[in-house]
């Protein structure tokens, strides 16, 4: 007999759910309901609430059984297996089953035929965090009526995925108390789909809505598989300003359990995939979403072939656009809503860090001349090194003559979120100090004059604007099995990126702390009797990041300065020899095991110990850079252990896989460490024998991390490491720049990717779409 409560609250149509109802409908359900209540059309559906789950547990007497399995089994793997089996083989009470079918049939009736649905987990408040950590709660797509109840049980069972149990154990959360809601939504039968932004994604201009559209499922646009049609709409009068119909060479359609790619030619490839009427309807929805969340948004949408306009226009995901929003130094074009006029191009180079900025150029050939550099000026120089960072931080854009996309200038400006063009050959000769220029670093072009006007700085107020908690906001992003880590070196910029959906820091380069906070060479500090200064400042810098994102891990990389860079530190000249080729010289582990540097390495280890033990930041792990041989690593680990740091379940030791010997000997290295992280910048350099900073070879196309030889090495490493139960990540620039490398690595089973802050959202979405495709193929 259905209780009254179950009747009223067991199943709720999305239209009755609101954002406050996280406990009942879970984070995802609450969000979808809230969007609907604001007139933002999402695919119709209903929520099987946590009350229904509870009823199912009680009906089958599962609570006690779950408690005793959790008690009996030490191994989470075994416990997971048994509890999942229990849930999957238990009976859904007949009355609840009937309610679920009734809701499903009602959805089908509205369409006039039996529909397919998505069955999605929707974790309740206390479990949201563990859900995103476990990364494994399930979503099933294209589910038929006949399989609906099984899939609902499968989603319930996913509460007890091994990683979820593990995580809750480590947090002291009682696994038998967590609850789960399930969202069931009509699968959109996508005639067309795509993404839209409530600003112009290429320059941050908030006067526009930009829609990208193509035929079939959205993965074609999100995954960058087609050149989409583009519609630009002005926000203030909702008029279409520009419409570009692209030649779309394929579409992805759902066919008998699989997403299949269908080649297109002839009329369909060249005709517009979206009508003006539909584009304007989407723009209206975009405005509502933007005003609801109070910030620029990045939205996925679809047009359903089964329904009539305007009921066929759906929003499938909406999340804050953070790239432009978080750029504090951003200058947004606010002056005119017209198309840009012809501009004189002064120089061109590689687009290393996207964005656009106008300002006065200042050409500096030596960092010593930088005293007069004014905040907001554009730095034009030959190449940067760590000494330049303080200047880079106050520049509005950076242009360098030399360097490729893995150069110092490129890496630092991406992290700081400053537009940068590198390898612009003779920029320092063509551009003049005081000249007004515009750096369009999305296209890699420097124009004469100011194209964009300055806007007063907009304070980013985090999540409070939307009225949603940070947890709920983050639950708007897709959960991925592959962890999405972020690269970060500058402790103070972490604040700016806290709202991004990353699972940890996969590479914390400590060189920034050393050159900007400590400033002195560690051996010099030892010589003058102040070693503690090094230890304390380094520990503080690490702690700043580790505490801000606790309990997510921070993989701190021991120092990887080259001799020429160390020499730039105060007191450095005395300790650093001149090397002919520092890039392949005394760097990484070869330093730590050398008589000269070993005392300084011990200070680095002490700083890690201090962060972990004195400050209690057990989420700090370490990584050895530029590892060449097993003997040197063995010796370095020995020194670390001598300083009291040993591998444990919560202290992971990783090495960078960037010298090819690490891959050749991956089996041997696997026995010594917990994980590898691919340093694709150096791996490409050393596999191909190409100096990563050589523009001659760069321009000729030699330096390319996508080269089959490099990809083959990465694949081999994943295979061997997994054979030995070790994890593999990547922290070089490749996945931040080439989505195809990310796709390759996810398909090869990489455990995590660590990318630049500006690509976290894009990559999370990309990885989710690739994983979904893999899952569909496997079924
Ligand atoms: C790499 O080599 O890919 C890497 C991440 O290290 P770095 O760029 O600091 O050499
Ligand atoms: Mg490297």
Automatic annotation (TrEMBL):
<dbReference type="InterPro" id="IPR000121">
    <property type="entry name" value="PEP_util_C"/>
</dbReference>
<dbReference type="InterPro" id="IPR008279">
    <property type="entry name" value="PEP-util_enz_mobile_dom"/>
</dbReference>
<keyword id="KW-0808">Transferase</keyword>
<dbReference type="Pfam" id="PF01326">
    <property type="entry name" value="PPDK_N"/>
</dbReference>
<dbReference type="InterPro" id="IPR018274">
    <property type="entry name" value="PEP_util_AS"/>
</dbReference>
<comment type="function">
    <text>Catalyzes the phosphorylation of pyruvate to phosphoenolpyruvate.</text>
</comment>
<dbReference type="InterPro" id="IPR002192">
    <property type="entry name" value="PPDK_AMP/ATP-bd"/>
</dbReference>
<comment type="pathway">
    <text>Carbohydrate biosynthesis; gluconeogenesis.</text>
</comment>
<dbReference type="InterPro" id="IPR013815">
    <property type="entry name" value="ATP_grasp_subdomain_1"/>
</dbReference>
<dbReference type="InterPro" id="IPR023151">
    <property type="entry name" value="PEP_util_CS"/>
</dbReference>
<feature type="domain" description="PEP-utilising enzyme mobile">
    <location>
        <begin position="373"/>
        <end position="444"/>
    </location>
</feature>
<keyword id="KW-0067">ATP-binding</keyword>
<dbReference type="GO" id="GO:0006094">
    <property type="term" value="P:gluconeogenesis"/>
</dbReference>
<keyword id="KW-0460">Magnesium</keyword>
<dbReference type="InterPro" id="IPR015813">
    <property type="entry name" value="Pyrv/PenolPyrv_kinase-like_dom"/>
</dbReference>
<comment type="similarity">
    <text>Belongs to the PEP-utilizing enzyme family.</text>
</comment>
<dbReference type="GO" id="GO:0005524">
    <property type="term" value="F:ATP binding"/>
</dbReference>
<keyword id="KW-0547">Nucleotide-binding</keyword>
<dbReference type="Pfam" id="PF02896">
    <property type="entry name" value="PEP-utilizers_C"/>
</dbReference>
<dbReference type="GO" id="GO:0008986">
    <property type="term" value="F:pyruvate, water dikinase activity"/>
</dbReference>
<dbReference type="InterPro" id="IPR006319">
    <property type="entry name" value="PEP_synth"/>
</dbReference>
<dbReference type="InterPro" id="IPR040442">
    <property type="entry name" value="Pyrv_kinase-like_dom_sf"/>
</dbReference>
<dbReference type="GO" id="GO:0046872">
    <property type="term" value="F:metal ion binding"/>
</dbReference>
<dbReference type="InterPro" id="IPR036637">
    <property type="entry name" value="Phosphohistidine_dom_sf"/>
</dbReference>
<dbReference type="Pfam" id="PF00391">
    <property type="entry name" value="PEP-utilizers"/>
</dbReference>
<keyword id="KW-0670">Pyruvate</keyword>
<keyword id="KW-0479">Metal-binding</keyword>
<protein>
    <recommendedName>
        <fullName>Phosphoenolpyruvate synthase</fullName>
        <ecNumber>2.7.9.2</ecNumber>
    </recommendedName>
</protein>
<keyword id="KW-0418">Kinase</keyword>
<feature type="domain" description="Pyruvate phosphate dikinase AMP/ATP-binding">
    <location>
        <begin position="23"/>
        <end position="336"/>
    </location>
</feature>
<feature type="domain" description="PEP-utilising enzyme C-terminal">
    <location>
        <begin position="472"/>
        <end position="771"/>
    </location>
</feature>
